[in-house]
């Protein structure tokens, strides 16, 4: 078996541009996932708030119980039936963000519940409201505990972003497929694409480890 990477490296700039688009899609989806995850995670902390709790539970059921690819196609091909047409990039960010947000919400909820309830009670005894206790006392500690599982979710998000190529977004996977269509060097192209994804996920993991180390060194958690 003879491997020939020359067609891949001849168009390597297109792969780099695709990697930049992958980072942009992932970053947008990550921001959306964090916002949704925080809101839904907090919303599922108190079952006595019946409406909010059940709305959040339905959201989790829908987005965790159906394949990401199907969700992306619904955003891209389904919304126009309701007179809503979004750019492919926006559909990719929305689909990835809504899907990932369901998993982030459970990470948020678990991290908040892991903080000793006595600290919240102590904050309330000092005159803080429930919101103040959550914002000042609980969340700073919960954030540090969220980082390891969030790191796994963010890495999964980078890898899942390869699916947005099916929405005609010119991401890394899409650019790789264009090279294959011209050069017919599928193995070589996919090996280089896999290496670039590996670099992206490894860099993300290292950054998150550094952030976690700094937060722990700053005494945000015991």
UniProtKB/TrEMBL annotation:
Signal peptide: none annotated. One of its GO terms (biological process) is amino acid transport. CDD domains: TM_PBP2. PANTHER family: GLUTAMINE TRANSPORT SYSTEM PERMEASE PROTEIN GLNP (PTHR30614:SF20), MEMBRANE COMPONENT OF AMINO ACID ABC TRANSPORTER (PTHR30614). This is Putative glutamine transport system permease protein GlnP. The chain crosses the membrane at residues 12-40, 52-78, 84-104, 190-208. NCBIfam families: HEQRo_perm_3TM (TIGR01726). Belongs to the binding-protein-dependent transport system permease family. HisMQ subfamily. InterPro entries: AA_ABC_transptr_permease_3TM, ArtM/GltK/GlnP/TcyL/YhdX-like, MetI-like, MetI-like_sf. Part of the binding-protein-dependent transport system for glutamine; probably responsible for the translocation of the substrate across the membrane. Residues 19-208 form the ABC transmembrane type-1 domain. It is a multi-pass membrane protein. GO terms for molecular function: transmembrane transporter activity. Keywords: Amino-acid transport, Cell membrane, Membrane, Transmembrane, Transmembrane helix, Transport. It is found in: Cell inner membrane; Cell membrane. The keyword Transmembrane helix applies. GO terms for cellular component: ATP-binding cassette (ABC) transporter complex. It comes from Achromobacter insolitus.
């Amino acid at each position: 078996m003879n491997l020939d990477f020359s067609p891949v490296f001849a168009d390597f700039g297109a792969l780099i541009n695709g990697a930049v688009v992958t980072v942009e899609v992932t970053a947008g989806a990550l921001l959306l996932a964090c916002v949704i995850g925080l809101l839904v995670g907090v919303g599922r902390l108190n079952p006595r708030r019946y409406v909010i709790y059940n709305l959040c539970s339905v959201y989790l059921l829908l987005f965790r119980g159906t394949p990401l690819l199907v969700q992306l196609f619904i955003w891209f091909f389904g919304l126009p039936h309701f007179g809503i047409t979004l750019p492919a990039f926006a559909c990719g960010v929305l689909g990835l963000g809504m899907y990932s947000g369901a998993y982030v919400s459970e990470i948020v909820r678990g991290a908040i519940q892991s903080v000793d309830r006595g600290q919240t009670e102590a904050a309330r005894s000092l005159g803080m409201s429930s919101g103040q206790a959550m914002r000042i006392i609980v969340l700073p500690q919960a954030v540090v505990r969220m980082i390891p599982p969030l790191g796994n979710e963010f890495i999964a998000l980078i890898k899942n972003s390869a699916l947005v190529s099916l929405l005609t977004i010119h991401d890394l996977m899409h650019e790789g497929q264009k090279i294959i269509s011209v050069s017919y060097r599928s193995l070589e192209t996919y090996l280089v694409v896999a290496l670039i994804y590996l670099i992206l996920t490894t860099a993300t993991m290292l950054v998150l480890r550094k952030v976690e180390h700094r937060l722990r060194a700053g005494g945000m958690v015991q």
